[in-house]
Every structure is written in structure tokens, then in C-alpha cells.
Amino acid sequence: MAAKRGATFRRRELGKELQKLRENKGLTQQEVSRKLNFSHTKLARVENGENDLPRVSDLENLMDLYDPDMPKGDRETLLQLHRDSLSDEPWTPYKAFMPSKMPTYRGLEQDATVMRAFQPNFAFGLLQTESYATALYRIAKPVDETTTEYIEQNVRLRLERKELITRSENPLELRVIMDETAVKRMVGGPEVMREQYDEIVQLGKLDNVTIQILTHDVVTYRSESNFAILDFSEALDPIVQVDMPNTISVTDAHREVQRNLRRFDAMRDSALPPASTAGFLYQLAREWN
């Protein structure tokens, strides 16, 4: 039985299919916009999977323009993708508390099969404990002028996201590299740090999780920014996500994906082997004492 996919995954699938149909017809987005009185900006966002098509009539008009003789089965496939793309997702209640483009990434994240990630500054998000995540948000509260509700909702979302790697059915395969700074930087106090180290060690024992530390004493390439690359088993091309001030970037551009894969591979080959992660963290824990 085919895996049930989330609305964001289906929305992106639909967008890619519509883009193929438009290009096969030899039309630009601007030409479609003029023919259907349809904003080309909206069409671009639909094709990228960032926006849905709330009205089925919009989809039907696009299908009629692109392929008036489309087989009934193909037409029904697109209509079903459209219906699936409009359903709510588990993270929908948190949408108001997410930075720009995070909802798209969160929706795709839940249907990814493999994640490769690098974090230079803090413990990687999917590995964080509740105490560590709460401390991070509280530190930033007076600077970012956030609310207590904002902190609570984001911490809850972060903990729910951890289910991606702990769920019993089709867990996400996580391969993460953290710079030594990320695990040495004091967040919340020694007790919070020791608890965080224990959490990383325990999660690292999962068959689907690989955690490496890129130590300071290695002369190697180091990315200045964090990033995550998501792979999908079917239908969609890989994407790469990079954090930016007050937003994130999400793209499936082949050049960007390949560039970040090279970055990941270079750091992976220079980082401590996964079997050394626990010993490194426990040594840090002893230093906190």
C-alpha cells in the first residue's frame, strides 16, 4: 500500500505536474496569467508548492488550457492531488508562530525519508530536550520581543517534530553533524547541558540516527550557516533548507542541493566517527562538573 502523504507533499506534487503540463504546452507563466486572468505570481507559488488552489475551478481551467484532451484517469489523478493538498496537517495550529516558509518545510519534512543536516551553533533541533529548547527561546525573548505563548508553542512544535526520528513506522533517517561549538555553548546551565548530552547519546543509539561532532582541532571546510537536505523516496526532488533572519529558504534547485551535499560530505569525512560522539559528550559533561 502506498504511504499516505501530507497536504504539503501533495501540494508540491500537484505544482510540479502543473509546471510540466505548462512547459509541454510551450506556455510561460505570464501567458497563462493573461489567458486565464490568473496572477502569474500566484501561479509561480502554486508550481513551487508554496500556495494551494482553494478553488477546484482554477485547477480545471488550467487543465483545460494545458491539455483539453487529457485522459480521464490523468485528470482524476490531478483532482485527487488537489483534494489531498487542501487537508489540514498536525502542525497547522502552530502556523501563526512559525517564521516565513517554515510551514512549507515542516510539511515536507514529515514525508522525507532521509535528512542530512549541519548545525554550527546549537544542539540540532530534532535532538533538543524540552529544557534546552525552552532556554534558547527564553534567552531570545527580550531581544526578539516574543511572548510566553510564542515560546510554549514553538517548544511544543519542536518536541513533536522529534517524532520524525522516534516513530515506529518509517522513521526519518537522520544524519547530522554539529560543530563542537554547538555542543559546548552553554544554554540554560550545566544541568540543562548534561540532560541535553544524555538525550543526544540516547537518540544516537537509534538505528536510523547518525550523529557526528566536527571538532575544533580539525583543519577542514566548515559551513558558516546551518542547513538541512531532505530526500524523498518518490515524486519529489530533494530540497535544501537554510535558516535566515526571521525566515528560512527552501529550494529544490539542483545546483543548490548539490552544493550543500558537497558541503555536508566534506564535513562528514572530517568529523569524529559516530561511535566517538558519546565519549566526546561525556567528557564535556565531566568538564561542567
User: What's the total helix number?
Assistant: 13
Rg, nearest Å: 21 Å
**Percent of residues in β-strands:** 5-15%
What is the end-to-end distance? 52 Å
Strand tally, please?
6
Estimate the mean pLDDT confidence.
92
The secondary-structure class comes to alpha/beta
Enumerate the strands of the largest sheet in spatial order, edge to edge or round the barrel. 3-2-1-4-5-6
Percent range of helical residues: 40-55%
Q: What characterizes the major β-sheet?
A: 6 strands, mixed
The H-and-E topology, N to C, reads as HHHHHHEHHHEHHEEEEHH
* Shape call: elongated
- Give unreliable regions as ranges: none
Would you write up a description of this structure?
The protein has helices at 7-25, 29-36, 40-47, 56-66, 72-85, 102-109, 130-144, 148-161, 163-166, 180-184, 190-204, 254-270, 277-288, and strands at 114-119, 173-179, 209-214, 227-231, 239-244, 247-251. It is elongated. Helix 11 runs antiparallel to helix 13 (277-288). Strand 5 and strand 6 (247-251) form a beta hairpin. It has 289 residues and is an alpha/beta fold. A 6-stranded mixed β-sheet has the order 3-2-1-4-5-6, sandwiched between helices. It has 13 helices and 6 strands. The longest helix is centred in the N-terminal third of the chain and has 19 residues, at 7-25.
SSE inventory with pairings:
Blueprint (H helix, E strand, L loop, with lengths): L6 H19 L3 H8 L3 H8 L8 H11 L5 H14 L16 H8 L4 E6 L10 H15 L3 H14 L1 H4 L6 E7 H5 L5 H15 L4 E6 L12 E5 L7 E6 L2 E5 L2 H17 L6 H12 L1
Parallel strand pairs: 1-2, 2-3
Antiparallel strand pairs: 1-4, 4-5, 5-6
Helix pairs in contact: 1-5, 2-3, 4-5, 7-8, 11-13
